[in-house]
Amino acid sequence: MRVMSWDKHGRLHDIITWPEREEVDKYIYTPGLHGLELAKALMDGRILGMRCSDGKVYVPPKTFCPDYSQGELVEVKGPWRLQHYTVVYEDLYGNRLEKPIVVGVIKPDDADLGMIHIVNVDPSAVRQGMTLRPVFRPKEQRKGTILDIEYFEPA
Amino acid sequence: MSVSKLPGTKLSSKEMYSLPGLVESAPQAKYDFSAGPTISRFLQGLKEGKILGRKCPRCGRVYVPPRDYCEYCHVALTNWVEVPDTGTVHTAVVSYISVRRERLEKPEVIGVIRLDVPGYPPNGYEFAGLFHRLCVPPEEAMSDEVIGMKVRARWKPKEQRTGSILDIECFEPVR
Amino acid sequence: MGMVTNLFVKDRVAIVGAGITTFMRRALETPRELAWEAARMALDQAGLTLKDVDCVVIGSAPDTFDGVHLKGEYLADGSGAIRKPMTRVYVGGGTGVFVPVSAWWHVASGLCETVLAVGEEKMSPAHPHPQYVFRYIWDPIIHRPLEPNLIWIFAMEMRRYMAKCGAKKEDIALVSVKNKRNALDNPAAQVAANITVDDVLKSETLVWPVQELDISPVTDGAAALVITSENVARQVTDSPVWIEGVGFTLDNQHWENRELAFPRYLNYAARMAYRMAGIERPWKEIDVAEPYDPFDYKELHHIEGLMLARPCEAWKLLKEGYFNRDGELPTSPSGGLLGVGNPIAAAGVMKVAELFWQLRYEAGKRQVKRPVHRAVANAWGDLMQAGTVIVLGN
User: Fold this and answer.
1) d(Cα A71, Cα A91) in Å, to the nearest integer?
2) What is the ipTM of this complex?
3) Does residue A1 sit at the B interface (CB-CB below 8 Å)?
4) Mutate to test the interface with A, among C28, C30, C51 (most CBs of A within 10 A)
5) Do residues C43 and C50 lie in contact, with contact meaning Cβ atoms separated by under 8 Å?
6) Counting C-beta atoms within 10 Å of the first and last residue's C-beta, which end of chain B has fewer, N or C?
7) C258–B13 CB contact, under 8 Å
8) Domain C13-126+217-393 classified CATH 3.40.47.10?
9) DSSP B42
10) Phi/psi of residue A57, nearest 5 degrees
11) Among residues 96-155 of chain C, which lie with CB inside 8 Å of chain B?
12) Cα B62 from Cα B60, distance rounded (Å)
């Protein structure tokens, strides 16, 4: 009969554990080719999308299309509509939020696919398909990231 | 390749950190590694001032650091044996940089020590050994004589041993 | 230990296109975009489009460099893998050659006819320094308390090789000189330079005996290959490069229990690949090689593991110019990792791409002087563990 090698003493304190933390202090991510153009546009208060050879427009722009060609940058003006949404009650660590947040997929009429962002509306008042508009932070606070748009609000 | 310019956009350090749209994020993962029953017993042995190895009941090979299964027989290892804390230096190097790639104040001498565990052919490919510090000054570590030099473990005093590989302070030459 | 492999190959497999990005210290592109740039170049060279690709193989080493987990999935759309079967492979640095090896078996099994194989690595997001990530591969209990830097393990191997084989630092530094000089003719190269042995010996000593110019740099980059069945290859090109043999092996993690002067893990993988390719005397039958060279002594180590030279003889042959581009058995004509750069997973793919161009006589200024029919590339990974080998022929 083969004996398993796990010396089963039944005493948990025989096992020694070592605490460790993640080895990298922080990550700095570059925006990428189209991402850089989007960053500049966001700082300017505009949103860009990408048009592919089949005519579809993607927001935000991703540099390459599903058929592998490079997409063409276009400006996306809206109007924006809420396609799907969910209401978030807890933060990443499981703590209850003071005020629940509505997060949704928001699609502009002049694009085929939408982007994710926060909708500044009371959970009881949110409706699928409702018209929204982006609200940008004050110009001095913009850094070129997606957070330059503070939220979308009902238009 | 026939292309004259390859794809890819180079950035200098200055260019990268002044880009708009940079995103920073700090990971939050913390880990609690379990040593497992085998290594826990090994560390316990270190706390008692002994180097323990584990023997295969079929081929008799003694593994240091100990394993759960014999690599060749695929049989569960059972017996614990105490092995001598003496050996010879297999290789030795001198480090001037820390884990974080910063310059160290005092260079560290580390190496692989081939322990005097019976059963392995003297110049064989495999042996029982440990990766640890050597208590020799850097100049001696860089000399030819250090390879094959006889060494013995220098243990920390009993009160300072906690059940870790650092319970051995370093391996010192047997003079 | 004897090794028995049950090898039955249904279909011949060929590489028909290759692409690489510039290798650089920091790239603007996101990892997806790097993969896309390399893959597109490979497809363009093969004259194929994404529609023709059946399956995709992605190789990318630790997620902790890029800072995006589930990297295979993340890179998927950059590698054309949306709505296609996708496999991600990872054996540390060995990934680079493991990517075409894996693509090989996708085709050889009959499952896919055209495979896009992509290797990508973006190391620059990790701060304060990407090298700190390597701390993570040591055993947490019996190695990490000693606070080892990854360079320690290379230094220990290098010292053992020097002690056992009688090689000196000046002899080993010739590899760095050769590769960085070869890289001057490589448009992708990050650190090509015309240096001398003196420059290497005067560079900063990091972990004696390893000095700054003995090491390959931190790099962002991607490389891709298009690998197809014989059927597709004959339609697409009149000079396919056949994958004649593949080999891969993993040794244990206890490198402190092994003789460090000879890479046993690589030798087993090489024997597997040579057996498949029908090569009995590699030192005679191989015309050009790309041994993995993250450090200069590693190239010599791997040359011996690949049986292109007898154990402890490689450094002597190097001195005679045997491994130069105009020598008997040119190694690293691309400039290798020491000259072109080391994006962990993509580096091996770059080496295979170089052999692809060499075997088609398309390597331009880097073309080796002697006729080439058979080539071998290898990659190595983890703590002296993973050996991956590929043998190509035209």
Assistant:
1) 36
2) 0.89
3) no
4) C30
5) yes
6) C
7) no
8) yes
9) H
10) -115, 130
11) 124, 128-129, 131-132, 135, 140-143, 145-149, 151-152, 155
12) 6
Cβ <8 Å between C156 and B110: yes
Question: Whose CA is closest to C43, among C93, C118, C96?
Answer: C118
The string of DSSP letters for chain A reads: -PPPS------GGGS-EEEEE-S-SEEEE---HHHHHHHHHHHTT-EEEEE-TTS-EESS--SB-TTSSBPEEEEE---EEEEEEEEEEE-TTSPEEEEEEEEEEEEETTSSS-EEEEE-S-GGG--TT-EEEEEEPPGGG--SSGGGEEEEEE-
Per-residue pLDDT of chain C (394 residues; tens, 9 = 90+): 334 455 666 678 999 999 999 999 888 888 888 888 999 999 999 999 888 899 999 888 777 776 776 666 666 666 666 778 888 888 888 889 999 999 999 999 889 999 999 998 888 888 877 877 777 778 888 888 888 888 898 999 999 999 999 999 999 999 999 999 999 999 999 889 999 999 999 999 999 899 999 998 889 999 999 999 999 999 999 999 999 999 999 888 888 888 889 999 899 999 999 999 989 999 999 999 999 999 999 999 999 999 999 999 999 999 999 999 999 999 999 999 999 999 988 999 999 999 999 999 999 999 999 999 999 999 988 777 888 999 999 8
- For residue C10 the two structure tokens come to 């249904």
- Which one of C29, C50, C128 has the shortest CB-CB distance to A33? C29
Distance from CA of B77 to the nearest CA of A (A): 6
- Of the candidates A23, A29, A62, which has its C-beta nearest C125's C-beta? A29
Q: Which residues of B touch C157 (CB under 8 A)?
A: 91
pTM for the model: 0.90
**β-strand partners of C248:** C388
- Domain boundaries in chain C? 13-126+217-393
Rounded Cα distance, B26 and C266, in Å = 37
Put simply, the answer to whether B31 touches A25 (Cβ < 8 Å) is no
Torsion of CA C291, C125, C72, C232, to 10 degrees: -50
